[in-house]
Amino acid sequence: MGEIYQKFIKESAKKAFDLEHRFKINYNIGKYNEAVLKGKEQFKDLELARKRAAALKHRIVNNLEKYLIEFAANFEKNGGKIIWAQNAEEATQEILTLLHKRNAKNVVKSKSMITEEIELNETLEQNEIEIVETDLGEYIVQIAGEKPYHIVTPAMHKSRDDIAELFHEKFNTPRESTPEELTAYVRDKLRNKFINADVGITGANFLIADIGAVCLTENEGNGLMSTAFPKTHIAVVGIEKLIPSLNDLDLFWPLLASYGTGQNITVYNSIFTGPKKEGEVDGPEEMYLVLVENNRAEILKHEKQRNALTCIRCGACLNACPVYKNIGGHTYNTTYSGPIGSVISPHLKGMEQYKHLSFASSLCGSCTQVCPVKIPLHEMLLDNRNESVNLGYYKRGEKIAINSMNTFLSKRKRMDMFNSKLKNIGIQLIFKNAWGPRRELPKFANKSFRDMWMERDK
User: Fold this and answer.
1) Which DSSP category does 144 fall into?
2) How many whole angstroms separate alpha carbon 442 and alpha carbon 69?
3) Which of 131, 241, 342, 453 stands the most exposed, by the fewest C-beta atoms within 10 Å?
4) Which residue, 286, 307, 162, is CA-closest to 231?
5) Are 255 and 263 in contact (CB under 8 A)?
């Protein structure tokens, strides 16, 4: 806990008081908020849509084995092949084996958080396999040598001037290049990557149980091109991404688009039911699906936190969170940042090392309010805090302080033993460091409310 926690505290202080960083992230989130308000207008009864989506996903996570069996049978019937991966190492090694068998040296990849989670890029690069991110935001952070900053918008922390400067350093494009010119440059550069790729790797937004299909929604067409040109398509997906039926997409796709980007629906929506069939002119000759568990069972065994696996990765809770808007995505040092990351990361990566994320919250409830599938995120953060204490992951000094305050505050006579001057001295000695160097501790008034009330009553 010590090293990771101290890094978090250091980075939080640095980012929270970086005015340029705060301007960029708040400007970009402000634009998002404007768009989302318009996107939500497409729903005649938004609350009913959220309740339906929440109920469907709740049914999935509480009957996950049943739906996984149904999905797997239908997917394999369509000609697809499934690889079950217990953890990140198994997943990356299975993918590496597939690539080696095909002598693959060039891989294109569409946006995928699960591949970030299992650190697939790093594994392939260590084995001298070129893997190119084809989503524009992911491509930007890849060439910058960074991790995604946000679940939906990976380069949210960069201004257009930052990106122009980055492209000038990497590709010698003019510093004054416009966003349109830089986008055209990347488009031209990636065309050859798509055409010459040996394998295409994607994630998935949803897995449809009743027809055994993998669904991908995006705005750039890069996901579609990552699967249309290469002979082999590998989809990497967490086991929780299931929805019951094809009919449910008319609910989930608009919800994801509205809350994720403020659109009625995203530009490209693809449903893959396996490799190309006889008579089809494009598509992969073979399709593999790597289903990743990677400690999701740890979340499933908790009745309260289990609901966090219903998340559809829209990123709305990040954009609403006052903590995220001040410290930014990289500070969390996890794949999933913001409120949803603070709920699931301690279980995915270890409560002892990452329990501090559940304490990095104001508990204002904004995350719960904006969640399209009604996950009670702020309540789950409290559940995580309670669990970490029950497991004994706290400092001895914290326990002494809590017990002392409980003893002191539980009796009125004990509270009145000291005057305001002594109380102020005591609070300075005990809490000065915990309160932070940039804030002044509140001071006890000369007279308590009780004293003033007694005087008035007399």
Assistant:
1) T
2) 58
3) 453
4) 286
5) no
State percent of the chain over pLDDT 70: 100
Residue whose pair of structure tokens reads 């932070």 in the numeric block: 436
Task: Find, among 240, 133, 104, the residue nearest to 193 by Cα.
Answer: 133
| Phi and psi angles of residue 259, each rounded to the nearest 5 degrees, phi first | -80, -25
* Nearest alpha carbon to residue 323 among 337, 311, 335, 309: 337
> Angle CA(62)–CA(64)–CA(67) in degrees, nearest 5?
125
Q: Are 42 and 254 in contact (CB under 8 A)?
A: yes
Structure token pair of residue 265: 């629906």
Joined together, the tokens standing for residue 129 give 């396999």
Contacts of 416 (CB under 8 A, 6+ apart): 448, 450
Rg (CA), the chain: 25
Q: What is the pLDDT, as a whole number, of residue 400?
A: 81
- In this predicted structure, what is the pLDDT of residue 159? 93
Q: C-alpha distances in angstroms, 26 versus 70, 321, 322, 327?
A: 43, 11, 10, 11
* Residue type at 112 in one-letter notation: S
Tell me the pTM: 0.91
In the chain, where does the domain assigned CATH 3.40.50.10420 lie? 43-294
> What's 394's DSSP letter?
S
The arithmetic mean of pLDDT across residues 333-348, rounded, is 97
Helical residues (DSSP H) of 63-111, grouped into ranges? 64-77, 88-101
Please identify, in words, the CATH class of the domain defined by 43-294: alpha beta
Q: What is the pLDDT of residues 382-404, one digit of tens each?
A: 999 999 999 999 888 778 878 88
Q: Are strands 268-272 and 213-218 parallel, antiparallel or unpaired?
A: antiparallel
Residue 172 has a pLDDT of 96
Could you write out the DSSP letters of every residue in 172-212? ---TT--HHHHHHHHHHHHHHHHHH-SEEEE--SEEETTTT
Distance between CA 70 and CA 210 in Å, rounded?
7
| Least confidently predicted of 135-139, 212-216, 440-444 | 440-444
Question: For residues 442 and 428, what is the distance between their CA atoms, to the nearest angstrom?
Answer: 10
Nearest to 144 by CA among 133, 129, 130: 133
What mean pLDDT is reported for the chain?
93
pLDDT score, position 424 = 83
**Over residues 75-84, mean pLDDT:** 96
- CA distances to 428, 436, 449 from 417, rounded to whole Å, are 18, 28, 15
Q: Mean pLDDT, to the nearest integer, of 210-233?
A: 95
